Amino acid sequence: MPDVLNLKREKLVELRNRAALGGGPERINKQHEQGKYTARERIERLIDPGSFIEFDRFVVHRCTNFGMEKTKFLGDGVVTGIAEINGQKIALYSQDFTCWGGALGASHAKKICKIMDFALENRIPIIGMNDSGGARIQEGVESLAGYAEIFYRNVKASGVIPQISLILGPCAGGAVYSPAITDFIFMVDKSSYMFVTGPDVIKTVTHEEVSKEELGGALTHAEKSGVAQFRCLDEDECFERVRELLAYIPASNYRKPTLKPTSDPHYRDNNKLREVIPSNPKKPYDMREVILDILDDSQFLEVHKDYAKNIICGFGSIGGIKIGVVANQPAVLAGVLDIDSSNKSARFVRFCDAYDIPVVTLVDVPGFLPGTVQEYGGIIKHGSKLLYAYAEATVPLITLITRKAYGGAYDVMASKHIRSDVNLAYPTAEVAVMGAEGAVNIVFRKELEGLTGPAFDKKKAELVADYEENFSNPYRAAELGYVDAVILPEETRIRMYEYLRALKDKKVEKPKRKHGNIQL
Q: Which of 159, 226, 320, 408 is an active site residue?
């Protein structure tokens, strides 16, 4: 009589092996030939070794249309489960392109929904590895229902647990909207694609000729659309960036961020910064030099690096305290605020606020970008998003004006008036309605009328110098209490660290409401 227990064990082993093969060796080889890992290989490369616990390995679809009942893959084209990254528990799913091109059907969607529910209930981040051609046509409206169930959970989890999307293949139609709702999107050069309608449909409808790379590749969404926050050279770099990101953010909004280990002395002078800010207010400089010199070990994870380069957003730490950084970039468009930079930074500030990550803002802004393109594009509406994000935030807010802070942009960039906790300025700071030359042209227009040649030049120079002495400096704002302290550049890190420590238990009572109505 056969050993029943051994037979059952053999059956389990055989099923596990079948599930591990996904769509089979031939399709796996094709995936490798395209320079892509399989769904399971991706999981193993992303997580801490040996930490993966799989859910629903043997789930299959129930579709009987179009001969689908003849082809079933264990797992139904997606691998789901829990694991650890940097010792932190996470939930994840990884779509398997070797099974019907990763297309989503009802059972496939239920697996994803189940792991998302688990993540939300246990307050751990959810990571989705997307490699899917979209809805499984053979399952019709059940596929569409599956997508909508995922979207609903994305919204429900927003601001409660971090949601990270890795685009590791083609994502079209409904497949792009779940990533779009998540907090961060990672894309890989030459293998990641996102579009609502593909090149063939566009050619048919609008007669435009466009390649899938131009339409929805990593470069397009990192530089032009701003859909993707991170663009990576290959999948391995993508996994490394995800691990780096998770080191800066908490597991949920229920947990305070932990300290980040550093060997960088907390009380370190920033002597390099004495020379970074030019004495000429019109001369550009790279704000990244300021950021890197302030942060622990010069480590800075920039978010949306290729998009709206006139503003910088990213994560770092000071004295082990994890922070978000928002900074105007004088090296690009003089650091001016425009539609794209307002959207980029507003979203970043709101993420930090949702997860209790203090925000340090470095200001060198000449104003909002003028022109019909900006006005017709809604700079008023989009600029207000950044204002709204800062005014709504209850996390510690520290602002440092390094040079220009002009006009409405001064107000918007985490000024004292919208409740930044600590506002600092370098001696080089200029806090004014506008630059001295422009102000003189308006205020003293009548005095300059009729003057020409050397007499005009002399009088204007006197007026500009007088305006700079009285208004284009930080001391008038300091007299009024709008700047808490004027500091030397070399004191920056020390002062930031002390203020961050003082603000660690900040609490703000907000008026009761369902939610605000931010301009979208």
A: 408
**Catalytic residue (one of 23, 75, 77, 173):** 173
The answer to whether 409 is a known catalytic residue is: yes
Structural domains of the chain, ranges and CATH numbers in brackets: 4-246 (3.90.226.10), 271-434+473-502 (3.90.226.10), 436-471 (no CATH)
- The active-site residue out of 77, 174, 314, 335 is 174
Question: Could you give the CA distance from residue 517 to residue 515 in angstroms, rounded to a whole number?
Answer: 7
Q: Which two tokens stand for residue 148?
A: 């909508």
pTM of the shown model: 0.94
Inter-CA distances, 441 with 149, 202, 449, 467, 504, Å: 59, 51, 10, 11, 46
Distances 262 to 294, 303, 320 between C-alpha atoms, Å = 13, 21, 6
pLDDT (tens digit per residue) in 388-413: 999 999 999 999 999 999 999 999 99
Fill in the amino acid letter for 157. A
Q: Estimate to the nearest angstrom the gap between the alpha carbon of 2 and the chain centroid.
A: 59
pLDDT in tens, 219-241: 999 999 999 999 999 999 999 99
Higher pLDDT, 244 or 11: 244
Residue/partner pairs of 202-207 with CB below 8 Å, 24 or more apart: none
Average of per-residue pLDDT across 444-457: 81
Residue of 39, 172, 327, 409 marked active site: 409
Determine how many CB atoms are found less than 10 A away from the CB of residue 377: 14
Residue 109, SS3 per DSSP: helix
Spatial CA neighbour of 301 closest among 364, 359, 246? 246
Going by C-alpha positions, the residue among 467, 369, 368 that lies closest to residue 408 is 368
Looking at residue 2, its pLDDT comes to: 61
Contacts of 504 (CB under 8 A, 6+ apart): 321, 396
Q: Where are the beta strands (DSSP E) in 247-378?
A: 301-303, 311-318, 321-328, 359-365
Q: What is the pLDDT of residue 443?
A: 86
50 catalytically annotated: no
Q: Quick check: is 109 catalytic?
A: no
Q: Are strands 230-232 and 184-188 parallel, antiparallel or unpaired?
A: parallel
174 in active site = yes
Q: Are 103 and 136 in contact (CB under 8 A)?
A: yes
Question: In the predicted model, is pLDDT for residue 72 greater than 90?
Answer: no
At residue 311 the predicted structure's pLDDT band, cuts being 50, 70 and 90, is very high
